[in-house]
Design a protein that fits this description.
6 strands; about 45% helix; 4 helices; 6-stranded antiparallel β-sheet; elongated; alpha+beta
Length: about 270
């Protein structure tokens, strides 16, 4: 399953900025950045329309003259149930295809949330236009929330794709150095990851250098000191640190020092 969907594989990811949690860019080995084609945006439109039909159908079931449980109102389920199935289908499509095109969880999830809010607003606009005063205020609120969420999603998608491009560029053209992690992160500052020093041998000058990067991982998957990494740099001083695929990492055995909950794995 990991080969079919490489983002299911939990591996420590190193970042050089302030990225953490859902803002960490995850680019599996061999991955390419798929374009944001019209077909992908069609998924989003279909999701919005499906959610809107669910809202309209549900409203009609509840507000039908016979009442929500009268036999006549169940005819509207012919609209609501297929629309709900369609919404789940397009949700799954955006969820999966979004990682191929965004490679960050948070902006992808914001895009899904914006679609859900937009569908809700569009669905409630129908009874509002038909004269239902109760639907006017929720429509306005959902529209405003959709606009704000959509703006954040758009900005996040742009930043994520820019970071993916940077990572792929460094993998393809960066100068490669071999390095090791030299210490564990500080348990006192642990928050779904922590800073670790990485020492590497500059392949151009032979000098030994040390950089500090953040390792984003679960508490039970913290690489031990001595873990081999690959460091890639360019002429502009950009830096990429990744686990060395030729040397499988060993993880620190006493995860209790870093655990933040009772699940045995912290939170990421």
């Amino acid at each position: 399953m990991d080969e079919e969907w490489p983002w299911l594989e939990d591996r420590p990811v190193f970042t050089t900025g302030s990225e953490m949690g859902g803002n960490v860019t995850v680019v599996p080995a061999g991955a390419v950045l798929k374009p944001l084609t019209w077909r992908f945006w069609l998924y989003v439109v279909e999701f919005v329309m499906s959610v809107a039909l669910v809202v309209v159908g549900t409203w009609l079931v509840i507000r039908s003259p016979q009442g929500a449980f009268a036999s006549g109102s169940w005819w509207w389920l012919a609209l609501t149930l297929p629309a709900a199935g369609s919404a789940l289908f397009w949700f799954a499509g955006i969820y999966i295809e979004g990682m191929h095109r965004i490679m960050r969880e948070r902006p992808r999830n914001l895009l899904l949330l914006a679609g859900l809010l937009g569908g809700g607003a569009l669905g409630l606009a129908v009874p509002a236009v038909l004269g239902s005063a109760e639907a006017v205020a929720p429509t306005a609120v959902l529209t405003a929330l959709c606009a704000g969420t959509g703006f954040c999603a758009t900005r996040g998608i742009h930043r994520a794709r820019k970071d993916v491009t940077r990572i792929l560029r460094l993998r393809a053209t960066g100068t490669t150095h071999t390095g090791v992690i030299t210490a564990l992160p500080d348990p006192r500052t642990w928050s779904s990851g922590g800073d670790v020093p990485v020492r590497y041998q500059d392949s151009s000058t032979g000098a030994e250098r040390t950089v500090t990067v953040r390792v984003n991982t679960w508490a039970h998957e913290i690489p031990v000191p001595g873990t081999r990494v690959i460091v890639r740099t360019d002429n502009d001083g950009d830096l990429l640190v990744e686990l060395d695929p030729a040397h499988p990492p060993q993880y620190f055995s006493d995860s209790r020092r870093y655990e933040q909950d009772t699940s045995g794995g912290g939170t990421m």
